Amino acid sequence: MDYHKEIRQSYWGGFSILLLEGFFWILAGIIWDFVSFKIGILIIIISGTFFYPLSQFLQIILKRPKVSKENPLNLLFTQIALIIPFSFPLIFLLTNENVNLFFPALTIITGAHYLPFIYAYKLKTYLILASLLVAGGSLFGFIITDNIYYCAYYTGSMLLLFAIINHNLIKREISKNTF
Description:
By secondary structure, this protein is an all-alpha fold. The chain has one domain (3-178). The chain contains 9 helices and no strands. Helix 2 packs antiparallel against helix 3, helix 2 crosses helix 4 (51-61) and helix 5 (73-95) runs antiparallel to helix 6. The model has no long low-confidence stretch (mean pLDDT 91).
């Protein structure tokens, strides 16, 4: 059995997680911009802690086939899901002196956390996404330091864009296999 193909087709190349993350990143940016930076941070932290379970729920709503229990990649995704919450202490240490580094730091970590997806899904789009997120987070952290909530808009937009790209790639792959 091709476990990578099973994961890729069941999850539509990560469509659910990318869609949810993109939505909450943009929401956090809007809240930071118009309400409060503290609430914007809370939105991304609380939602980020639940991205994986929420994506599993969205899989059920979308009526996607379940991945077989014997697929060894299931454990990898559980471990990947813990990378970002386990990185929060590092982000808090970094942003203790400058809260404007929160979104750039989290964007860089989010980008790095997508590197194992290249292997898990066997999709090179995750290399492009990871690179764009790390480069974007670095750009907002070091150069474009005003209106830092734009970093959340950028990150959310990239995640939504790659949700659409991966979804279309995998739907095409599935339709080729059907005929």
